[in-house]
Amino acid sequence: MALTRRQFLKTAGAAAAAGTFGINMEPVKAYAQPLRIERAKETTTVCPYCGVGCSIIVHTVRDDVVYTEGDSNSPVNAGTLCSKGAALYQLHKNERRLKYPMYRAPGATEWERVSWDWALDEIARRVKATRDATFTEKNAKGQAVNRTLGIASVGSAALDNEECYAYQKLLRSWGLTYIEHQARI
User: Fold this and answer.
1) Residue 78 vs residues 49, 56, 163, 178: alpha-carbon distances, Å
2) What pLDDT sits at residue 20?
3) Looking at the domain that runs over 41-92, which CATH code has it been given?
4) Domain layout of the chain by residue ranges
């Protein structure tokens, strides 16, 4: 940057005037703020968004999420996160996030809030009714198959191995054969 003599004099004059007119040019002392995660409990979890299975550390204070970050000890993501995974904290802290079940009756245009008990009972009733209506004990050859072709499942990438195992056992006990997992989609 080329500085002309006129620009130099203007700048020097402004600097001198600032010192003489009571403007304090001393550096301001900075005080460190306490960290949000100072007394937080760390829990590792799996990112719920895609099938990669990135590991995330969730910091909580009294059951309230205060911060999330990538887990640097994870062989999957080595501490890095995509934009959705990095914004996981906002998923928890969003005021618009639904925290209760909603139901829209057939033909209705509006959703209505329902209780957890009602929603879980209704899901169980419908799963049982569909299973009973579509259950096949034997195929055309007379072989025992004990399956239902009326229900399918797409698993979640947010489940760890143990949860996937338990979920798979549950679905197989119902006789499901169409079982898929998000990680393969």
Assistant:
1) 17, 10, 23, 34
2) 57
3) 3.30.200.210
4) 41-92, 102-184
Backbone φ, ψ for residue 139 (5° rounding): -85, -175
List CB contacts of 7: < 8 A, sequence separation 6 or more.
none
Confidence band (pLDDT; 50, 70, 90) for 44?
very high
Residue from 151, 152, 148 nearest 134 by CA: 148
Q: Are 61 and 39 in contact (CB under 8 A)?
A: yes
CA distance 165 to 171: 10
Q: What are 46-98's pLDDT values in tens digits?
A: 888 877 888 999 999 988 888 999 999 999 999 999 998 898 888 888 888 88
